[in-house]
Amino acid sequence: MQTSFTLAQLADPDIAEADKILRACVHCGFCTATCPTYVLLGDELDSPRGRIYLIKDMLENDRPATEEVVKHIDRCLSCLSCMTTCPSGVHYMHLVDHGRAHIEQTYSRPWSDRFMRVLLANVLPYPGRFRAALLAGSIVRGFAPLFDAIGLKSLAAMLRLIPARMPARSGYERPQVLAPQGPRRARVVLLQGCAQQVLAPSINAAAIRLLNRLGVEVVLAEGEGCCGSLVHHMGREEQALAQARANIDAWTTELEGGGLDAILVTASGCGTTIKDYGFMLRSDPGFSRKAARISALARDISEYLVDFDLGFQPRSGGLTVAYHSACSLQHGQKITRQPKDLLAKCGFTVRDVPEGHLCCGSAGTYNILEPEIARNLRERKVKNLEKTSADIVATGNIGCMTQLAPAIAVPVVHTIELLDWACGGPLPEALESLDDSVNKSRRIAVAS
Hints:
This protein is of the alpha/beta class. The protein has helices at residues 7-10, 13-24, 36-41, 48-60, 67-74, 81-85, 92-106, 111-123, 127-140, 144-149, 153-160, 195-199, 202-213, 229-232, 237-257, 268-274, 277-280, 288-297, 301-305, 327-330, 337-345, 366-369, 371-387, 398-404, 415-422, 436-447, and strands at 176-178, 186-190, 216-220, 262-265, 298-300, 320-323, 349-351, 392-395, 412-414. It is built from 26 helices and 9 strands.
């Protein structure tokens, strides 16, 4: 693709990077076949190729974003399926992130959209605020249809996502060091996360139990917070970078103190962003080297566990698992086989999901900000999951779990919860909803 940035524009490292990405695109259109919004809507401007043209035109002419540009960029899920498909290696993620930051700086959104984005940016990344918001929201959850009727669709979508029952608080919410059972084999930081520790504290609890049994010391670091991905994908770059810097400082303290073998993440959306810290802070003289060092240590929990003999026990009872590969894991981090291999070694029968490359519609805050497209994608994903006739859906991302669980009859659990159970941990609470025949099979397996 030819570009026409001026020398003055190219002096900006972000524009220089955008120019490099744009020049890699050869207009082939392979990305359109795997783009969820193009598959649904059939509009070229709702494909990666179309969005690339919109961003190119906006940046080359150094002009404010228009309503049309914003509409089509907002509809992008950042699922990155296009990057898996692209034969030319176009780094669409960095380009669309730059486009969103430009939109945030130059476009004045309608008041309702501004309000919702400010609300999300100032609540979701902070567990205390988020927990309070969920409790308050549960009171008015029944008014979601009314908000829908008066046009406040994002607010209605947000209320519908509030769980019917809040999980009990975890004992792992404060900074601490969890000692391993037996001799220490490794020392890791485990990202505590923000929304996940409120919505599903059982995920990190399962990871800690399993890691400790394997001889891994787990550090919940002082000063750590949200990874920054939620606001990063809304174009709020200063807030995202501030959150990244806080984490880098917290983890560098642990790295230079007791040493670290890895920084582990159980929410794949967070993992994709943390692995990108080196790029995000490449121009920051105070953080560029530290950020690259931290990114190099980041691992998804499944990526890390494949190097261990987990000591599986025959506790799965022959259960069939539909593995839903989160976009941020399969496209963002190129991790595809490890979770399925671990589950299979554990005794589960693992089934791939038809159209597994297509997003479920969660995508961070997307299912709130673009509820209609998100709902259509969820319905499509659920139909494909049901085709597997599986007993359980397993995935590695809390956003996918939150999106899918209300719409499907079988339990949706995190991969690490199944692995922990198979290696001596407790039965995941979600599996109590399995039907009697599967429960019977499970009890026989446990008794053996």
